[in-house]
Structures are given as C-alpha cells and as structure tokens.
Write a structure and sequence with these properties.
Layout: E1 5-10, E2 16-21, E3 26-30, E4 35-39, E5 46-51, E6 59-63
Antiparallel strand pairs: 1-2, 2-3, 3-4, 5-6
C-alpha cells in the first residue's frame, strides 16, 4: 500500500490475509507474508473486507 491500511481480514482457513487501503487497493498476502495478489479495481478507499466462511477463496470488499 502507498497510503494507510483501513481494513484487515484473515481467510477462514488462515492461509491468507487481505488488506484494504486508502490507496483504493486490496492486497492478499500469504501466511508467510508474501504478496499473493494486488487488486486495483476500487475507485475509493477499501474499508470493508470479509471472507466467505464456506468458500475460503471468496473475498468481499467495499469502501467509500
């Protein structure tokens, strides 16, 4: 992130940590601290993150 981190959420299986920031970016990190994906589709700060409890690879994100 290039600005403050606004949200954090661990995946239900503990393998990934999602972070959302004021830079409108969602980053998904492995449990080893390695950047797995960087998502840049948001047009505002990403403040809300939630992983689906029954499908561990599904992440919902929102902001404003």
């Amino acid at each position: 992130h290039t600005q403050e981190v606004c949200g954090l959420a661990w995946s239900p299986d503990g393998r990934f940590l999602a972070s959302g920031g004021n830079d409108n970016v969602v980053c998904i990190w492995t449990d080893a601290g390695v950047l797995h994906k960087r998502l840049t589709d948001h047009t505002a700060a990403v403040k809300a993150l939630a992983w689906c409890p029954w499908q561990p690879s599904l992440l919902a994100s929102g902001g404003g």
